[in-house]
């Protein structure tokens, strides 16, 4: 009974119908980032009956997430549960038929190249442009549509990138000042998230059900607080000599095997990721740490967290490390070398 | 001079000649954004050439990172 009725309202929606529903149930969607945007889009897609969803995120649940990241609970904060794990647990309760592939990892070139060829569409729910440019190039390489989405405060923006049709993110970024995007220091209200996701998920449903003529084709932006809605026709920004979508050189996929660091926007945190060839042994590391007297030590199956002076250090299974309490890369590296590597 | 930015009327008292001047006036200089001027998308290098005149319509869209 449940199965017969489950998607009836969506099937009644004419552009989808029985046939569209079947497409949705046979599809595989990759969601990169399971923060506010990723929580919301994954819930909508699971409820819509998508067959397989891969979630990719590097982080664990924190208290300040609860105001808008709808899949998470206070218990997840307490246990420092990785976002992909907390999300999977909740999503599986909503729809046990959807297969959820939870990947606790930083979305780098290697990780994306391993999954993007298998998926029908990619949703960008990340919080930084470095990752978006990698997504852009991987999706161009494997000819996969992806949907840019971002938000701060009451402002949101989204654009659907179709390989060989629309301009790609690299084309667009070449025509705007490159001083980096607005940082997350102005906060956000949760309706902003929902409106971006409403656009992103609708575009996904159009793509999955073959309704490509209904795609927006425009750069959509809005400010909910200021009651503004903008739609720009950006086809003219397609660059005939774009290294990503025309020349297919994919400049954003150049892999350097050295240590990678990133200051996480608005969070007073530095992320450190070891190079490709370095083997990290989590259990040895754990044994070693236990011989040291550390404050507020916590471990769960996915990570270890402890404090040292004014810093909190979180080390994941693969050795990826977050140093909270600093924006200074050198200072963070010093702590990393002392405890992790 | 009166113009429209993102659907809202804006009265400019200062001397503003180019889109570059307008972005400066709106404190949006060097921000990651795209400007549509009377339904034509401007490339970055056109900002200091495109003239602002009475009744012009602008749509200004920022690229933000959060998610």
TrEMBL record, chain A:
<protein>
    <submittedName>
        <fullName>Adenylyltransferase and sulfurtransferase</fullName>
    </submittedName>
</protein>
<dbReference type="GO" id="GO:0008641">
    <property type="term" value="F:ubiquitin-like modifier activating enzyme activity"/>
</dbReference>
<feature type="domain" description="THIF-type NAD/FAD binding fold">
    <location>
        <begin position="7"/>
        <end position="243"/>
    </location>
</feature>
<dbReference type="GO" id="GO:0016779">
    <property type="term" value="F:nucleotidyltransferase activity"/>
</dbReference>
<keyword id="KW-0808">Transferase</keyword>
<dbReference type="InterPro" id="IPR000594">
    <property type="entry name" value="ThiF_NAD_FAD-bd"/>
</dbReference>
<dbReference type="GO" id="GO:0005829">
    <property type="term" value="C:cytosol"/>
</dbReference>
<dbReference type="InterPro" id="IPR035985">
    <property type="entry name" value="Ubiquitin-activating_enz"/>
</dbReference>
<keyword id="KW-0548">Nucleotidyltransferase</keyword>
<dbReference type="Pfam" id="PF00899">
    <property type="entry name" value="ThiF"/>
</dbReference>
<dbReference type="GO" id="GO:0008146">
    <property type="term" value="F:sulfotransferase activity"/>
</dbReference>
<dbReference type="GO" id="GO:0004792">
    <property type="term" value="F:thiosulfate-cyanide sulfurtransferase activity"/>
</dbReference>
<dbReference type="InterPro" id="IPR045886">
    <property type="entry name" value="ThiF/MoeB/HesA"/>
</dbReference>
<comment type="similarity">
    <text>Belongs to the HesA/MoeB/ThiF family.</text>
</comment>
From TrEMBL, chain B:
<dbReference type="InterPro" id="IPR003749">
    <property type="entry name" value="ThiS/MoaD-like"/>
</dbReference>
<dbReference type="InterPro" id="IPR010035">
    <property type="entry name" value="Thi_S"/>
</dbReference>
<dbReference type="InterPro" id="IPR012675">
    <property type="entry name" value="Beta-grasp_dom_sf"/>
</dbReference>
<dbReference type="Pfam" id="PF02597">
    <property type="entry name" value="ThiS"/>
</dbReference>
<protein>
    <submittedName>
        <fullName>Sulfur carrier protein</fullName>
    </submittedName>
</protein>
<dbReference type="InterPro" id="IPR016155">
    <property type="entry name" value="Mopterin_synth/thiamin_S_b"/>
</dbReference>
